[in-house]
Amino acid sequence: MSSVMVLLLGIAGMCFGWFVYSRFIATRIFRLDEQFRTPAHELEDGVDFVPTNRYVLWGHHFTSVAGAAPIVGPAIAVYWGWLPAVLWVVLGTIFFAGVHDFGALWASNRHKGRSMGALSENVIGKRSRALYMIVVFLVLLMVNSVFGVVIAGAFVSTPTAVFPAWAAIVVALVIGQLVHRRFNLIALGVVGVAVLYWTIYAGTGIPITLPAEMLGLAPQANWIIILFVYAAIASMLPVWVLLQPRDFINGMQLVVGLLLLYGAVFISLPGLSAPALNDAVSETAPSIIPLLFVTIACGAVSGFHGIVASGTTSKQLDKETDARFVGYLGAVGEGSLALITIVTVSGVALAATPEAWSEIYDEFGAAGAGSFITGGANLIERGWGIPAEFAQTMLATMVVLFAGTTMDSGVRLQRYIIQEWGEIYRIPLLSNGVLATLLAVAACLLLAFGAGGASGTGGMIIWPLFGATNQILAGMTLLVISVMLIKLGRPSYYTMVPMLFVFTMSFLAACVTLAQFYQDGNYLLVVLDLVVLGTSLMVMLEAASVIAAFKRGGGNVPEAER
User: How far apart are CA 291 and CA 534, in angstroms?
Assistant: First the structure.
């Protein structure tokens, strides 16, 4: 099958998801109400709760959940062949990620913008809330710590991406002020993207590097500290000052990047060098089932999305009916990025022959974001005639900016979690925004440098837990939404079936990695893995008990609430 046919079938599936399936979910299952007063209006404070234009909010949500994961995951999973990766991305986007992200946003909106962990108390019970929030905090700790390493590593390996990455912050600050003063959004978007691409062009001639040693640390370690200082400041600013405009510009920048990549495929008509199913996997490679479903998370379904949807996005929702556009279409955008990543790393732009492709993908995990950047740059040069050097800087900057926006939102979300703990357990100090932010950043830096030493790469130590833990969290989020629907007397099949599939696969994956951690003598990961497995099982049992009790009581719901 040609790369063009893969894209066409994938796009057709996602169009069905957006135009048909999401509309059905919105009208028949979630029953969105345009007159419902959203938390952004009810609790408006000008800092976190801010009614936001749905296009700007889509940009925030999309770039916050995307990060580097919809590139890295698919680029690794192609090892098993492009066909399983494409099927999981397309079907996952339609029936899993779209419903999960949309549902988390809707559920939080109906509970005053509370996070999924906090609102699980209302839906399931107090014990589930405490257990749920442990998993949420662990996922955020992993994401923030590791993305700091990823961005710092990109700054060291691609110094031409440093200038445009930091210039994007200045552009966002200016646009945030202009949007706040009611300047035309479309015009600002066009100008902002144009300036951003100019900085990318300028960056190719302005490589920026840190001294070989500064404050006794190597460049990557210093970049990690700088990034967390920035993230702490950014997370305390009102969302309209930096978070919204930065995410909006990054979202528009990604749309341009996707158009260039998709257009390059349709112009150059490249073949696929990777096999549909790889029958030459090494003996040490993990089994495709269940590992495929945790290797590709963002781009198919991801628990981290539920944290963002219920953490920051729900607090900015202007109208409840915007939830479909922001939540489901955000998942479609991410699925589109994962799909083009698969085609890029499977095509001749990366490796001209199947033999050359096999040399790159000689073992599981051998290729990742670097393969996407190299293959994508070659693809854009072949299709559009844009110099590969510029295209490589553009794609590297795109990866850095996505990881940066995810890190921005991640630190803010960690602050929310700590503040919610302060409210739940009546500890006033934890409810203070500044202290909560400092504690969030301190936890990340403690992991980075406490476990990783002077390199600051400590987050990578627990990163092997992320895939299964993240997907278990996705199953828990779908479970909360399902119980909420059952209590409202609405059909729950459309969330319950994806929940059972995701939870089963991720639970099996966690068991597989648990055995591997034990064999390797990595007892820290063994303990953490057992905590995640035990916690998720207890939440499932709590939910089953609540559902059973509800059914025994007759399950009667007033007509007005259905």
Answer: 20
Q: Check if the beta carbon of residue 83 is closer than 8 Å to that of residue 309.
A: no
Nearest to 483 by CA among 421, 408, 438, 545: 545
Cβ-contact 82, 73 below 8 angstroms: no
Domain limits of the chain?
3-561
In angstroms, the CA 21 to CA 52 distance is 25
Residue 330 and residue 10: Cα distance in Å, rounded? 16
Indicate the CATH number of 3-561 among 3.40.50.300, 2.60.40.10, 1.20.1740.10, 3.40.50.1000.
1.20.1740.10
278-320, pLDDT tens digit by residue? 998 988 889 999 999 999 998 999 999 999 999 999 999 999 9
Task: State how far the alpha carbon of 180 is from the alpha carbons of 37, 39, 60, 173, 175, in Å.
Answer: 22, 20, 16, 11, 8
CA-nearest of 335, 306, 309, 340 to 322 is 309
Q: What is residue 336's predicted lDDT score, i.e. its pLDDT? A: 96
Q: Identify the H or E element spanning 282.
A: none
Q: Could you tell me which of 107, 127, 108 has the C-alpha nearest to residue 535?
A: 127
Q: Are 340 and 258 in contact (CB under 8 A)?
A: yes
CA atoms of 59 and 66, how far apart (whole Å): 10
Interhelix angle 126-157/116-123, rounded to 10 degrees, is: 160
Report residues of the chain scoring pLDDT below 70: 1, 554-562
Query: What span, in angstroms and rounded, lies between the C-alpha atoms of 458 and 546?
Result: 39
**Residues in CB range of 277: below 8 A, 6 or more apart:** 80, 81, 83, 84
pLDDT of residue 1: 67
How many Å apart are CA 191 and CA 248, to the nearest integer?
Answer: 12
Do the beta carbons of residue 234 and residue 440 sit within 8 Å?
A: no
Model's pTM, two decimal places?
0.91
Residue-level pLDDT at 557: 53
The upper half-sphere exposure of residue 319, i.e. CA atoms within 13 Å in the direction of its Cβ, equals 11
* Residue 473 dihedral angles phi and psi, to the nearest 5°: -65, -40
Six-digit token string for 473:
């969290």
Q: Using one digit for the tens of pLDDT, what is the confidence trace for 399-427? A: 888 788 888 888 999 998 898 888 888 88
Greatest distance between any 2 Cα atoms in the chain:
70
78-116 pLDDT, tens digit each: 999 999 999 999 999 999 999 999 999 999 999 999 988
